[in-house]
Amino acid sequence: MPEPLSPGATIGIIGGGQLGRMLSVAAARLGFKTCILEPGGDCPASHVANFHLQAEYDDEQALERFADAVDVITYEFENIPTASLDLLETKCPIRPGREALRVSQDRLTEKKFLRDLGLATAPFAAVSDADGLKAALDEIGAPAILKTRRFGYDGKGQARLKGLEDADSALEAMAGAEAILEGFVDFSHEVSVIAARGPGGEVACFDPGENVHRDGILRTTSVPARLTAGQRTDAVLLAAKILNALDYVGVMGVELFVTNQGLIVNEIAPRVHNSGHWTQNGCTVDQFEQHIRAVAGWPLGDGQRHADVVMENLIGDDMDRVPQLAKEADTALHLYGKAETRPGRKMGHVNRILR
Amino acid sequence: MPEPLSPGATIGIIGGGQLGRMLSVAAARLGFKTCILEPGGDCPASHVANFHLQAEYDDEQALERFADAVDVITYEFENIPTASLDLLETKCPIRPGREALRVSQDRLTEKKFLRDLGLATAPFAAVSDADGLKAALDEIGAPAILKTRRFGYDGKGQARLKGLEDADSALEAMAGAEAILEGFVDFSHEVSVIAARGPGGEVACFDPGENVHRDGILRTTSVPARLTAGQRTDAVLLAAKILNALDYVGVMGVELFVTNQGLIVNEIAPRVHNSGHWTQNGCTVDQFEQHIRAVAGWPLGDGQRHADVVMENLIGDDMDRVPQLAKEADTALHLYGKAETRPGRKMGHVNRILR
């Protein structure tokens, strides 16, 4: 096991959005410096980081400088070019490791990985072309949802099919990309487990949160989630199983459907997760510090929750509500410093603390 | 009353130590940018600020650039050169305002201000030379403590006198500076009130904390403090009286001695205060965000405390304890990113949350 990083060490973060921003603040709280690799200027993370290396994710010279400047590399998004990772890992440890990225970068690989672990998933089949889509629909039935295998987020790169009649338009939405057809799951609600694992194999989970989406974007996460004691235990054990199988180091978000037949894994994200933002005001060590602790080889926080919290994302024009939200007692504002408000853009969130 | 600042505005902070660092993080959380004015390189606040203007506090060109770059100016320490403030305030609002700085920069002015408000202080007398010291000792009695009127902190610029026989050495310790002799107060313990006032005159106080010093440096602050309900009310009313008298905008630390004859004001600090660090883990809006809210003209947090907390400063070699402290449940670490550990130097603090 490697030595824990000492305060003063530099943590490299690939991606400069709000997750990188909140990771940087958490790293600073533990005395670490941060270096952000992100092509955009004036990005949210750059406001609170020591260094911002403004370069494309496949700029080899920049990648070398980045790896030389930092003591460990982590990331806020999973779609990092493979060639870049190949280059970086010759120079500096990357946490979470390559296996977690390989699995989660591709929806088909991820589903197979979960199935091979004995976990329940939605029915799925690979789709490369029109014949494949017809065969997949025969196998899985309709309605179903066609998704690109890679590079999807917040509902992008997805198309719903009521039946074979939607096949052409759905395939068109894939724009030639390899896809996966997923059957619908009859679930009552979605929960997620924010789980962490350290380099020594210790695992700590936060209490599962209950998620509500609108237009494919997370709107609220509430803790505690509506779960039986048995489901709660299942959720945590299942998350731990995934982390152990990947020899994972860091925080992972595991989204689960709650059904009458038990918990079904929707997807995993090898990073801090929007549905874990409530921990900032519900736990002594939040998901961001937990991730930094894990990648730095520090002891993990115990994940204990000391308040009920409802996290609400502020999306687009929700920013107009900030003056009113600032007046609410027990409401913690977290804004991301984005210069431009756009519809569907995550601008910040509030954590409402219920005591 | 001025318009509240909108997210995206820039807050200028004079001073780049740990207070500036934690103010910067709080400002970022509300979507503000920050610009630090501080002569030292690699200072704690620069790690988490958007901009660091590295210049002396009396560098006129730098001051002009600073004032032009920001929407409001605040500070983390009170000993800012008067000429610099004169220049800055022609270009940009300074909050808290000049009157608070004028009063608190000089121990004698501060004591007179408090006495004129009808508040109890330690007995005091101005001392300019050996004759004046003898007269002051005659008036106040011994033991007593001689302090420079300006530029003292953490026990520096102070000398204790058991009697007239210590007069020469005490005067020598002042190095020719104007001084004030203060009588000792027979107090059972010290508490402090962290109070905030907005531009509209609204006041919000955090629950008083109980302070323990060692070698002239704050070691711990515990909430709740040992106070009767009546003392608690007195403390808060007294702090509000001070803020109102100064037409104050921002957070102030008010140190009080608890005696059998009631509360005696020790000193005031026109800024966020070490004894308010517990609010980071005890309140939804902590003292740093409260200060930013006040100077930005936003609604103040209500100051409500939701946990008992013991704040402990990590001083010098206390940094060696960090690996052990990181293992403690319900202990929040806050490190300042200082490159060099020195005896007596504040390197960080922990908040232990007692539920």
UniProtKB/TrEMBL annotation, chains A, B:
<dbReference type="InterPro" id="IPR054350">
    <property type="entry name" value="PurT/PurK_preATP-grasp"/>
</dbReference>
<feature type="binding site">
    <location>
        <position position="147"/>
    </location>
    <ligand>
        <name>ATP</name>
    </ligand>
</feature>
<feature type="binding site">
    <location>
        <begin position="266"/>
        <end position="267"/>
    </location>
    <ligand>
        <name>ATP</name>
    </ligand>
</feature>
<dbReference type="InterPro" id="IPR013815">
    <property type="entry name" value="ATP_grasp_subdomain_1"/>
</dbReference>
<protein>
    <recommendedName>
        <fullName>N5-carboxyaminoimidazole ribonucleotide synthase</fullName>
        <ecNumber>6.3.4.18</ecNumber>
    </recommendedName>
</protein>
<dbReference type="Pfam" id="PF17769">
    <property type="entry name" value="PurK_C"/>
</dbReference>
<feature type="domain" description="ATP-grasp">
    <location>
        <begin position="111"/>
        <end position="296"/>
    </location>
</feature>
<dbReference type="InterPro" id="IPR011054">
    <property type="entry name" value="Rudment_hybrid_motif"/>
</dbReference>
<keyword id="KW-0547">Nucleotide-binding</keyword>
<dbReference type="GO" id="GO:0034028">
    <property type="term" value="F:5-(carboxyamino)imidazole ribonucleotide synthase activity"/>
</dbReference>
<dbReference type="InterPro" id="IPR040686">
    <property type="entry name" value="PurK_C"/>
</dbReference>
<feature type="binding site">
    <location>
        <begin position="182"/>
        <end position="185"/>
    </location>
    <ligand>
        <name>ATP</name>
    </ligand>
</feature>
<dbReference type="InterPro" id="IPR003135">
    <property type="entry name" value="ATP-grasp_carboxylate-amine"/>
</dbReference>
<dbReference type="InterPro" id="IPR011761">
    <property type="entry name" value="ATP-grasp"/>
</dbReference>
<dbReference type="InterPro" id="IPR016185">
    <property type="entry name" value="PreATP-grasp_dom_sf"/>
</dbReference>
<comment type="subunit">
    <text>Homodimer.</text>
</comment>
<comment type="pathway">
    <text>Purine metabolism; IMP biosynthesis via de novo pathway; 5-amino-1-(5-phospho-D-ribosyl)imidazole-4-carboxylate from 5-amino-1-(5-phospho-D-ribosyl)imidazole (N5-CAIR route): step 1/2.</text>
</comment>
<comment type="function">
    <text>Catalyzes the ATP-dependent conversion of 5-aminoimidazole ribonucleotide (AIR) and HCO(3)(-) to N5-carboxyaminoimidazole ribonucleotide (N5-CAIR).</text>
</comment>
<comment type="similarity">
    <text>Belongs to the PurK/PurT family.</text>
</comment>
<feature type="binding site">
    <location>
        <begin position="152"/>
        <end position="158"/>
    </location>
    <ligand>
        <name>ATP</name>
    </ligand>
</feature>
<keyword id="KW-0436">Ligase</keyword>
<dbReference type="InterPro" id="IPR005875">
    <property type="entry name" value="PurK"/>
</dbReference>
<keyword id="KW-0067">ATP-binding</keyword>
<dbReference type="Pfam" id="PF02222">
    <property type="entry name" value="ATP-grasp"/>
</dbReference>
<feature type="binding site">
    <location>
        <position position="107"/>
    </location>
    <ligand>
        <name>ATP</name>
    </ligand>
</feature>
<feature type="binding site">
    <location>
        <position position="213"/>
    </location>
    <ligand>
        <name>ATP</name>
    </ligand>
</feature>
<feature type="binding site">
    <location>
        <position position="190"/>
    </location>
    <ligand>
        <name>ATP</name>
    </ligand>
</feature>
<keyword id="KW-0658">Purine biosynthesis</keyword>
<comment type="function">
    <text>Catalyzes the ATP-dependent conversion of 5-aminoimidazole ribonucleotide (AIR) and HCO(3)- to N5-carboxyaminoimidazole ribonucleotide (N5-CAIR).</text>
</comment>
<dbReference type="Pfam" id="PF22660">
    <property type="entry name" value="RS_preATP-grasp-like"/>
</dbReference>
